[in-house]
Write a structure and sequence with these properties.
single chain, alpha+beta, 4-stranded antiparallel beta sheet, 5 helices, 4 strands, 41% helix, globular
Length: 148
């Protein structure tokens, strides 16, 4: 009974904390409207891990910004949790189907396999069209148009 109460208390405390996801995204280069990143994705197979890696880049740009890049400030003003609750339907559709339209290139750097922590992962170099991503987020109502 004491263990149950302790576990319940700990899960409540951690549930109340605003812990943002940590994406393993590193800025590599920019070329006008596009930016290239090296990113790690995890999953039980290569397809899932690649999808997670690509989504990690998009979410990092949207909710965290990428240090040492021209996009060091997040595109979305709200935290990820608040934005997902506030714009549930458009963001769900975007993350399920449409995010790949903003990715211009995705190249495998390290093949799918177990990493040093014995987790199955893949490393990709992902190129994102930043202007297209910003325009898409404006169209679905997640961010306001620049200057308004």
């Amino acid at each position: 009974m004491k263990r149950f109460l302790l576990l319940s208390l700990l899960s409540f405390i951690f549930g109340c904390l605003n812990i943002n996801a940590q994406y393993q995204v590193n800025y590599i280069d920019t070329n006008g409207e596009t930016m290239t990143f090296r990113v790690v994705g995890y999953g039980k197979n290569a397809k899932i891990a690649s999808r997670n890696a690509e989504l990690n880049v998009i979410k990092a740009l949207m909710f965290e910004g990428i240090p040492n890049s021209q996009q060091h400030i997040p595109m979305v003003a709200e935290t990820e949790t608040i934005a997902l609750n506030k714009y549930n339907k458009p963001l769900k559709k975007f993350f399920d189907e449409e995010y790949q339209n903003e990715i211009t290139q995705s190249v495998i750097v390290r093949k799918f396999g177990k990493d040093t922590n014995k987790q199955k992962s893949i490393t990709l170099e992902v190129t994102v069209n930043i202007r297209a991503l910003r325009n898409k987020l404006e169209r679905i109502g997640v961010i306001r148009k620049f200057g308004l």
